[in-house]
Amino acid sequence: MRKLIRYAPALACLLAAGCTSVDRGLRHTVVLHYQHVANVHRIDFSSPLTLVQRSSPVDAVLPLESQGFWAVFLLCSVDASGAYVPSFYFDVDRFRVRYGKQHFGPLRPWTLRLDNTTDLNTRTDTPAIAQAIAMEIQEGPSSQVFRHGFYGGLDYRFAIYIPRGLPDYSGDELTLRYDGGQTMVLGNGYPPSDIPLAGLGGTGIASSCLP
């Protein structure tokens, strides 16, 4: 029912006489369905992370500000069955969280704290930290080519880091967008769980999309 509601305006236009522009657009469009499953406030590494420019290993990472978090998503399905869609290139780093005029994507330097200190991630160590975070949270490939067709039951899990609190955010589903290609990205409307800790000793994060 949730998906039907979201598609209603487009379907109504398609059924109306003379509404050909939307029809052409959908024929070129890849539709991605997702679920926002959790907001995580700290990540503990299963194995301490050794960084080149740091004398001691890193056991955990925390948001730059106390109200920051990692928004964790599941990619539920990819619909690349539009008449003029030959294939779709999926890259997890092309997803963005949109909130008002703000947008968030891959981890940037100087935006998170190492352990419970004031030390921040540098440009040099950011790729290694991003990979370590993915090892704790991500499920599924980082990239993949989807040929023409529909792919359901994917449950690819990934996280997007939000370094500070979002104004007036009440914990509802966040808006996800894909940077690249002609895409429509639709959430299933379920609110995320609030999880204090992920990784070593943390509670579980959902791994399957709800219908």
Account of the 3D structure:
It is a single chain. The protein is of the alpha+beta class and 211 residues long. The chain has three helices and 15 strands. The strands form four sheets. Strands 1, 4, 10, 11, 13 and 14 form a six-stranded mixed beta sheet that branches. A four-stranded mixed beta sheet has the order 8-3-2-15, with helices on one face. Mean pLDDT is 89; it is low at 1-23.
How would you describe this structure in keywords?
single chain, 211 residues, alpha+beta, six-stranded mixed β-sheet, four-stranded mixed β-sheet, 15 strands, 16% helix, globular, disordered N terminus
What's the arrangement of secondary structure elements?
Blueprint: H1 2-15, H2 20-27, E1 30-40, E2 43-49, E3 58-63, E4 69-80, E5 87-91, E6 95-99, E7 102-104, E8 112-114, H3 126-137, E9 143-147, E10 149-151, E11 156-162, E12 175-178, E13 183-187, E14 193-195, E15 198-199
Parallel strand pairs: 1-13, 1-14, 2-15
Antiparallel strand pairs: 1-4, 2-3, 3-8, 4-10, 4-11, 5-9, 6-7, 6-12
